[in-house]
Fold this sequence. Notes:
alpha/beta, Rossmann fold, UDP-galactose 4-epimerase, domain 1, 2 domains, 35% helix
Amino acid sequence: MRILVTGGTGFLGGAFVRAAVAAGHQLAVLSRAKAGDRNGRTLGEAGVQRWVGSLGFPPWRELEKFAPEACVHAAWIATPGVYLESPENHDWVRWSADFLTRLPAWGVRHLTVLGTCIEYQITGQKLLEDVTPLAPVSTYARCKCALHEALVGGGLPTSAPLAWARIFYPYGVGEHPARLASSLLAKFRRGEPVSLKTPRSTKDYIHADDLAAALLAVVEQGFAGPVNIGTGEGVTVERVARELGRLMGRSELIQVPENPPADPLDYVVADATRLRSLGWKPQVTLEAGLRRLVEAGAS
């Protein structure tokens, strides 16, 4: 299959590109990063066409020559500490809608767009597509919802089924250093105290390789509709910290407050039934995934 990937040099887009190439697909990557940039490592993959451009000014001539059959739209602002309330999110809605609604005319017959688990109302229960209400509270989540509504509300022809992939909490080698596992790991390496503000906060952490395999299953099977990209299992912040502390031999650095403050996103775990019905199941355990992070930093 010929697959176009936006944001193919980012953390998640890059993981998908590597998985799709390994599965024998032909890939074209649209990214603002150039080969050799910090996030441009995926551009060196054999069998990947490289297009430097943007959603606002895409290389339509090259796209026509490539004739993609499917598109995975992973590009979006995602910098920790910035992305949740950045006004740039509104630009991404406009850019994405304009770009994606034009793709079917160029031969694309399936679209997979990355949404977010925090589109949901947090209920304390597992989050289920088409059942759990949507109640986005950040600019980022509201803009993701706005794009989804624009696409399903008549923006796409019926010949282009849309998979709306709600991403839970990915981690792995190559993630931003401010993300949970990498930020904790950095403190362990520096020998600094690791104070856990919300140790009981429970999230659905999914390794980037498992996430890429899940997205590939969605694309290959032409799935249409919303689908949770998560493991279906909740893991506390304290468990992540203790596993990393054990792997680093620095468990004594972990500090857990007696009365931690409440986390408004205290339990964000997927109901993964729909994803697993596609034949997917996670392959990377939390211990194995965190060990890879530790070993990557030591190499």
